[in-house]
Amino acid sequence: MPSNLLQFKPRVVETPYILICTKCGEENEGTANFCSHCGKALRPQLRSTRQQYAPLTKHTKVPLKTMTEIIAMEHSLQGTKRRRLAYRNLVLFRLGCNVGLRGGDLVQLKAGQFVGTDGSPKDTVYVIEQKTGKGRELKISDEVAAMVAQYTDDMHLASEDFLFGSQKGGCLTRKTLNDDIIVPAAVRLGWNPLLYGSHTMRKTYAYRFYTQAQHLSQERGYRALSMLCKELGHSNEAITLCYIGIEAEEIKEICNLSAKDYDWAVMQALRDELGED
Q1: Among 120, 101, 126, CA closest to 233
Q2: Among 55, 11, 12, 10, which Cα is nearest to 30's?
Q3: Do both 85 and 165 map to the same domain?
Q4: d(CA 100, CA 205)
Q5: Using CA atoms, how far apart are residues 252 and 262, in angstroms rounded to an integer?
Q6: In this model, does residue 47 exceed pLDDT 50?
Q7: Which carries the bigger pLDDT value, residue 275 or residue 219?
Q8: DSSP state of 131
Q9: Which residue range is the domain that position 50 belongs to?
Q10: Cα gap 180→92, rounded to integer Å
Q11: Residue 9 falls inside a structural domain
Q12: Close Cβ partners of 87 (under 8 Å, ≥ 6 residues apart)
């Protein structure tokens, strides 16, 4: 892992701690084994980490604001020994950060939505959002479209297959994406696991969309904010800015995050190791 990722170290605090139930979202004492509200077993492998990081307050998920954070998460997502799963998780994360879908919609995507019958990548994908029932047209960059097309070929996916299949069959669930993929990756980096989850990718997409436009010109920033407000279903632009965690002083420090900045060698290395599983 790059040396500049060493800055992500655990931060120990001296306040009381809680566990957030992944089923009902309610708070529980840090020593509890089961949720006192719905009875769900609290995840033992995350208990010590959540106790270490989570003060007695609820947190909203946050975006990854810098390329350093994005690359750190990508390296952590490769923590599984199964290279096939590491490859799947990396493609899922990159796609999620580039299309801004909710986790439940992301795991429902199928190979045929991204690749034509002749194997060529598509630059436009149409989806129906589960939460709103509304249709949404996704514009896919050339780099990301090529990445997904290569992934479907490497994984030998038919057009009707889910892009991100589960080992048990069918597609991943949003809960699995959150609890078994994104949160453990944050834990391995020493990040507060309550701040990251399946929604992190959607917020990262929104943050990048706005900040890249704002970096080019203030007028483009205004237009991008208006588009995001409509795309995310917010009632006003102030809510959108709060949603993506923008503060006035941050605008001066915006960096241009492009798909071209990704470490594509990591993707190639995973592809080369697929045959070893």
Answers
A1: 101
A2: 55
A3: yes
A4: 5
A5: 23
A6: no
A7: 219
A8: T
A9: 15-58
A10: 13
A11: no
A12: 151, 154, 155, 267, 270, 271, 274
155: exposed, middle or buried (Cβ count in 10 Å: 0-12, 13-18, 19+): middle
Two structure tokens written together for 65: 């604001």
pTM score, whole prediction: 0.68
The CATH code of the domain that includes 152 is: 1.10.443.10
Q: Which neighbouring-strand residues pair with 163?
A: none
Share of the chain above pLDDT 70, in %: 74
Alpha carbons 205 and 202: distance in angstroms, whole number: 5
In whole angstroms, what is the distance from residue 14 CA to residue 48 CA?
A: 14
**DSSP H helical ranges for the chain:** 44-53, 67-77, 83-99, 103-106, 142-154, 174-176, 183-188, 199-216, 218-232, 237-243, 264-273
Cβ(52)–Cβ(17) below 8 Å = yes
Listed residue (140, 52, 147, 49) closest to 98, CA to CA = 140
Provide the pLDDT for residue 260.
Answer: 53
Which 3 state secondary structure label does DSSP give 255? coil
For range 74-101, the mean pLDDT:
90
Nearest one of 149, 80, 145 to 117, comparing CA atoms? 149
Of 31, 90, 73, 80, which is closest to residue 191 (Cα–Cα)? 73
Task: Name residue 34's amino acid.
Answer: F
Statement to judge: residues 22 and 100 lie in one domain? no
- 53-57: average pLDDT: 41
Phi, psi (5° rounding) for residue 186?
A: -65, -40
Specify the number of domains making up the chain: 2
Q: Which of 277, 58, 89, 103 is nearest to 205 (CA)?
A: 103
Spatial CA neighbour of 156 closest among 276, 266, 275: 275
Inside any domain, residue 6: no
How far apart CA 5 and CA 74 sit, in angstroms, is: 11
